[in-house]
Write a structure and sequence with these properties.
The protein has helices at residues 3-10, 12-20, 29-37, 73-98, 107-128, 136-152, 165-194, 208-255, 258-298, and strands at residues 42-45, 48-51, 60-62, 65-67. The protein is mainly alpha-helical. The strands form two sheets. The chain has a two-stranded antiparallel sheet with strand order 1-2. α4 (73-98) packs across α5 (107-128), α6 runs antiparallel to α9 (258-298) and α7 packs antiparallel against α8. It is globular.
Length: 301
């Protein structure tokens, strides 16, 4: 949505008066930011919109909930991130499996092998321990899928799927399910039950029921806070960075002075470099915490 369209749509009479002078009302700046961060059924490319509202998928009724699978711009960029994962790693996997075992890979395959080995040795194995290699593909997929979505948000399209709480919550739920299944497989039914119905060692017999009543809800809530922290941390960091960039750019249309233009562009350029680091860091933190949670439940003792 262009600034002119935004002012005409949301500004009312006061906005039209401001628009007559070519400026955007300052009070409309939060709506301007929200319109670019929020999900929608269109994609804006160099000022022109590609509408997706005409593409409708029949909704799915599940347990009384209506799930709409119609495409949105966040969904489109999630699919682009997934396509990038497949397009990059399938050829790399084929190149690594077909090479001569006595020779080291070369080029891009060599770089990716070094990256994967770093992840396996310094992230997955150190946090999960014995049997960690089986979780390396999942942790790598989580990292690169989130990383690509974060990087796509830094392109001129400015569409970041991880700035949607529904997206980060879905990723966190998947990580939670994998974590709990890993605990069940490693500890068995009885051992896994003790991660919820927990009584500290050394508690006298008469106090055990009391401690069980106290610790059971605490341990259960502790399980739920882990995916909550994963979802909110990623969502908040992505929203905060993009909101700051859009707010600074929006000041250009509010004040329309060359000094404001120069200052905003300079500060935004520095922030975009920082955002590149944040995009990588947040993907790494999500993957690292997922491996930490898996390691904690597999070694609950």
């Amino acid at each position: 949505m262009s600034v002119v369209e935004f002012v005409q749509e949301y500004g009312g009479e006061s906005a039209e008066a401001e628009h007559a002078s070519g400026a955007m009302p300052f009070e409309e700046l939060p709506g301007f930011i929200q319109s670019h961060i929020a999900d929608g059924k269109y994609i804006e490319i160099f000022g022109s919109k590609i509408e997706m509202s005409s593409i409708q998928v029949p909704p799915l009724e599940l347990f009384g909930l209506t799930i709409d699978f119609s495409p949105t711009r966040h969904l489109v960029f999630m699919l682009i991130a997934a396509f990038l994962c497949v397009a990059i790693f399938v050829p790399v996997a084929r190149a690594l499996t077909r090479r001569d075992p006595s020779r080291a890979p070369s080029g891009f395959a060599n770089a990716m092998e070094s990256f994967i080995l770093y992840f396996r040795d310094n992230l997955v194995r150190q946090n999960i321990g014995h049997g960690a290699d089986g979780y390396t593909p999942f942790i790598l997929t989580v990292f690169f899928f989130i990383w690509f979505m974060n990087l796509l948000g830094l392109t001129p399209f400015g569409i970041t799927a991880t700035a949607n709480l529904s997206v980060t919550a879905a990723l966190a739920i998947i990580a939670f399910i994998v974590t709990e299944i890993a605990g069940m497989r490693a500890l068995g039914p009885a051992g896994y039950a003790r991660t919820i119905f927990y009584v500290p060692a050394g508690v006298p017999g008469p106090l055990k029921p009391v401690m069980l009543l106290i610790m059971t809800p605490v341990e259960f809530l502790g399980k739920l806070t882990k995916p909550f922290a994963l979802a909110v941390r990623l969502f908040a960091n992505m929203v905060a960075g993009h909101s700051l960039v859009l707010a600074l750019l929006g000041l250009i249309f509010v004040y329309q002075g060359w000094g404001v233009v120069a200052s905003s562009v300079l500060v935004v350029s520095v922030i975009m470099v920082l955002e590149l680091f944040v995009a990588t860091l947040q993907a790494y933190i999500f993957a690292m915490l997922t491996s930490v949670f898996i390691g904690l439940i597999r070694h609950a003792h």
